[in-house]
């Protein structure tokens, strides 16, 4: 079953753009691991928040990706920029009107 991870990541004041840069760095490893979509966004009304939408082939593929060297390096680079505030949802996708 396709797996979605949709959430928010809190950035320290003034660090949002640097965090976005880390999160949007090109990564062929993610698609090879089963990531179908990884979108990063911002809302100017929330200057210390980054929004992330991930779609994976499975929850198992998502979990396995967290063990990849490239992903672990990105997490470590981002860690000093984080406020510790996280939010969001994880769920199995049951359908879409855009595809069969």
UniProtKB/TrEMBL annotation:
Q: Does the keyword Zinc-finger apply?
A: no
Query: PROSITE patterns this protein is in?
Result: ABM (PS51725)
Pfam families reported in the protein's UniProt record: ABM (PF03992)
Domain ABM residue range list: 3-94
> What Gene Ontology molecular-function terms does this entry list?
monooxygenase activity
Q: Which UniProt keywords apply?
A: Monooxygenase, Oxidoreductase
State the source organism's domain of life: Bacteria
The UniProt entry, under SUPFAM superfamilies, shows: Dimeric alpha+beta barrel
Query: What is the protein name stated in its UniProt record?
Result: Antibiotic biosynthesis monooxygenase
What is the native source organism of this protein?
Candidatus Agrococcus pullicola
Organismal lineage: Bacteria, Bacillati, Actinomycetota, Actinomycetes, Micrococcales
């Amino acid at each position: 079953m396709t797996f979605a991870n949709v959430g928010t990541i809190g950035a320290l004041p003034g660090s949002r753009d640097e965090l976005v840069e880390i999160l949007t760095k090109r990564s062929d490893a993610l698609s090879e691991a089963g990531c179908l979509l990884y979108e990063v966004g911002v809302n100017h009304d929330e200057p210390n928040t980054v929004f992330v939408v991930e779609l994976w082939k499975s929850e198992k593929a998502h979990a396995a990706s967290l063990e990849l060297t490239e992903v672990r390096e990105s997490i470590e680079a981002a860690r000093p920029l984080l406020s510790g505030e996280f939010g969001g949802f994880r769920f199995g996708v049951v359908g879409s009107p855009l595809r069969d």
